[in-house]
Write a structure and sequence with these properties.
Blueprint: H1 3-24, H2 30-47, H3 51-96, H4 105-123, H5 127-140, E1 153-155, H6 166-171, H7 182-189, E2 207-209
Antiparallel strand pairs: 1-2
Helix pairs in contact: 1-2, 1-3, 2-3, 3-4, 3-5, 4-5
Amino acid sequence: MNRGIFVIFSILSLLAFGQSLFAQSLLDNPDYKKAIELQQLAKDAHAAGDYDKAYEYSEEARIYIARSNAYIAQKILWYKANSWLNKARSRVAYFKSSEINPDYQQAYQQALAGLEAAEKSFTEDQYENSIEYSKGVLTLLAEAKSEALLPKYYKVRLIPEERDCLNKIAGYPFIYNDRTKWRILYEANKSKLKYINNPHLIFPEQVFEIPSIEGEKRSGEYDPKASYPVFGK
């Protein structure tokens, strides 16, 4: 191929290179800037008819193109690895802040080890390995469930529209979801009642224990701001 024609093809490839980099918004890359500078020199030399010089500039530019491409690839890989790592962190953090179902405890421990490996690989710039470890964490916890506990204690609230009473409390979805089970509450808490012969006369701020009746796990005091599962579901 005629050297002058070859230089034209080289310059066109450099132009395409510059456009792709602009799309990546990596104009702060020094290798890219150098390649653009050499591209312009090659164009000027070609316009002046100095094909040998234009060829030299275009060939030198190829070196910087290769460096810049490697830089871009590494940056893209960093963003991907960071994104997957954040997903893995969030998933593990969710289970750390709640009580994980014992059936998934082994998977959770494996996920912790996987997250540690993902973090280590990321800090060592081994982004592909980090991505694989992060994906592994998400796979391990994909079907895991937290142990959603029901409240063990209930503090009587002042609700003017419909005052709390034992049968109403028993009917709450997070208690027994059945008003007829009020006697269970009565038997467990009758020592706390001011009028033992009137089980439905209770007062705000009294705290009643909620016995487990179907092996369900209960813990803590009922929090109106929290979300609870429906008893029996």
